[in-house]
């Protein structure tokens, strides 16, 4: 019985010990866990709320200074050193207003944030409560790829932004130098925002604009407002644009234009690559050549300056400006190549020419501006049995005369800007309507045709080889004498005032003059006759009558300028207000260099408060 009681007591004691041990272990584990959490929080999340003095050669408390502030001086070895939330501040002299957690730093001041941002100045104010710094006197803000210099700078550590409004300069190794009256640096995206009298200068060009957003890492520049980019041999203007300062190319909109020596290029949107000397434009394009007195229009263009070439399509129109009567040329595609002293124009696919006394149409037109030679060609792109083959054959109208053939050469005097002569090769055909009859046509055909002009009017025509003619002969009163149908080796025709004065048959084979009543109706057309008067352009607008409806490409465009929020926004002002000393009679040092609200801001704040 005694033994049993002893065993029971022993078991109870052991159980109590085990429970006690368990509680101790549990408490110990909780204590360790709590300690670890506190340590982690302390090690990684602790924020130092107050400015902390790290080093001073000499310090004293001047009773004459407001609030009995502490003054610190450097020694021969080190500067005065403060630290606050990861920022180190060094200077030769500092006045620390401990009660307001505010410091004034003098002489060789240096603020270092991490290993990327360093600011130096002659004088700096810094509030530990607002985390706002104000620097003055030879201020320099450095980060890995740029250096900002100004005379006055605000630095908001909370927003990680710097701001100046007394003119500043940013030097960037790969992009050059940027100056402006107002500037702002956003440290997280590494973006500068320049406002008012912005100038970017590098060895290749100078950019002037009203506003510029610049991204430091990429070198991308976004341009707002009237802007110019001036290079050694080209100038660019736009009112909205983008430029890659590292790769030297850009995109421009809104009254955009590029001056390429003797050419001015305008368009709704433009692309420019300085390295390639290449430019392209889209929609409502106008290229003006001041040397060759010409204008080219269209809706897509490419310009290769080194090759002296221009490619343009989309209702392409070339205008050769002349003193009295300009020449207009339209086709699906236009190409202008060669230097100014020997420019070549090529128009292909449904090409047309128009001036007041001349019009023409061909599959392709080639103009040599130096020699004055215009070639009208039918490109062999389709089968001869193609129903549109005839429509592609070159045709030329002068006054009331229609000339056609396989190829037409038109020669102009480049000095007088007047027509000199023309040649029609193979299947030459000259047609003009009889002045009185409704369906009568004067016709002359042969292997080749040579025509001569005087004052831009055709006055002499020679039909060479296998010549044939049908001519309505009339007297001075206009009465029909008869219809002449003849064949000969060649024919010479004299024309004045758009009337045939004389027809000479050389080496006549056969033919005679027949009265209209005896002339067979089925013989009034020479073989190959094709009157194409309905195709003749009679105005500039007629050049486009066969074109499909114009559909301009949609240009997404660059985003509009969005004004930035005020640097001294409500967030800053609330922080400054919260930094006020409890004693209202004392100056709030954190507000010392904060500008007052603008009148508009005051009105908005009053309206928002409901007063």
From TrEMBL:
Keyword Signal on this protein?
A: yes
Protein name according to UniProt: OstA-like protein
List the source organism.
Winogradskyella wandonensis
| Gene3D superfamilies in the cross-refs | Lipopolysaccharide (LPS) transport protein A like domain
Q: Where would I find the Organic solvent tolerance-like N-terminal domain in this sequence?
A: 77-209
Q: Which UniProt keywords apply?
A: Signal
This protein's superkingdom?
Answer: Bacteria
Q: GO terms for biological process?
A: lipopolysaccharide transport
């Amino acid at each position: 019985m005694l033994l049993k009681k002893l065993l029971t007591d022993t078991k109870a004691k052991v159980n109590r010990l085990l429970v006690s041990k368990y509680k101790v272990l549990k408490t110990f584990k909780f204590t360790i866990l709590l300690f670890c959490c506190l340590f982690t929080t302390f090690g990684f999340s602790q924020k130092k709320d107050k400015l902390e003095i790290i080093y001073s050669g000499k310090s004293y408390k001047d009773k004459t200074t407001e609030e009995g502030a502490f003054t610190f001086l450097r020694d021969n070895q080190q500067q005065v050193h403060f630290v606050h939330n990861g920022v180190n501040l060094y200077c030769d002299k500092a006045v620390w207003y401990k009660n307001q957690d505010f410091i004034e730093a003098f002489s060789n001041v240096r603020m270092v944030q991490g290993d990327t941002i360093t600011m130096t100045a002659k004088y700096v104010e810094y509030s530990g409560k607002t985390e706002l710094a104000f620097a003055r006197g030879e201020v320099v803000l450095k980060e890995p790829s740029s250096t900002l210099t100004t005379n006055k700078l605000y630095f908001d550590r909370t927003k990680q932004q710097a701001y100046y409004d007394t003119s500043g300069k940013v030097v960037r190794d790969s992009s050059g130098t940027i100056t402006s009256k107002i500037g702002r640096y956003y440290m997280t995206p590494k973006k500068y925002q320049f406002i008012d009298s912005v100038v970017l200068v590098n060895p290749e060009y100078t950019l002037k604009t009203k506003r510029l957003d610049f991204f430091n890492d990429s070198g991308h520049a976004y341009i707002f407002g009237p802007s110019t980019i001036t290079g050694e041999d080209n100038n660019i203007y736009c009112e909205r644009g983008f430029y890659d300062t590292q790769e030297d190319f850009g995109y421009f909109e809104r009254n955009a234009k590029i001056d390429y020596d003797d050419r001015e290029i305008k368009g709704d949107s433009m692309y420019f690559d300085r390295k390639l000397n290449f430019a392209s434009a889209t929609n409502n394009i106008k290229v003006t050549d001041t040397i060759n007195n010409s204008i080219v229009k269209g809706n897509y263009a490419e310009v290769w300056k080194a090759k002296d070439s221009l490619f343009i399509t989309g209702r392409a129109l070339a205008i050769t400006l002349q003193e009295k009567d300009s020449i207009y040329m339209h086709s699906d595609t236009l190409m202008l190549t060669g230097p100014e002293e020997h420019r070549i124009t090529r128009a292909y696919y449904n090409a047309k020419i128009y001036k007041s006394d001349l019009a023409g149409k061909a599959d392709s037109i080639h103009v040599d501006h130096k020699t004055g030679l215009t070639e009208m060609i039918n490109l062999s792109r389709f089968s001869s049995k193609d129903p549109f083959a005839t429509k592609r054959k070159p045709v030329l109208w002068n006054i009331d005369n229609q000339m056609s053939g396989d190829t037409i050469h038109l020669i102009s005097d480049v000095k007088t800007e007047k027509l000199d002569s023309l040649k029609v090769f193979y299947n030459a055909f000259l047609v003009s309507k009889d002045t009185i009859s409704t369906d009568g046509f004067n016709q002359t055909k042969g292997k080749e045709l040579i025509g001569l002009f005087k004052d831009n009017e055709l006055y002499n025509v020679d039909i060479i080889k296998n010549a044939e003619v049908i001519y309505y002969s009339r007297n001075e009163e206009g009465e029909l004498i008869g219809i002449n149908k003849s064949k000969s080796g060649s024919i010479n025709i004299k024309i004045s005032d758009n009337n045939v004065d004389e027809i000479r048959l050389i080496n006549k084979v056969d033919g005679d003059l027949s009265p209209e009543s005896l002339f067979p109706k089925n013989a009034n057309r020479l073989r190959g006759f094709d009157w194409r008067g309905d195709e003749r352009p009679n105005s500039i607008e007629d050049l486009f009558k066969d074109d499909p409806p114009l559909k301009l490409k949609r240009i997404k465009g660059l985003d509009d300028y969005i004004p930035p929020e005020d640097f001294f926004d409500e967030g800053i002002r609330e922080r400054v207000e919260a930094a006020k000393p409890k004693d209202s009679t004392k100056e709030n040092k954190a507000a010392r260099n904060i500008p007052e609200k603008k009148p508009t801001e005051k009105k908005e704040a009053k309206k928002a408060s409901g007063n």
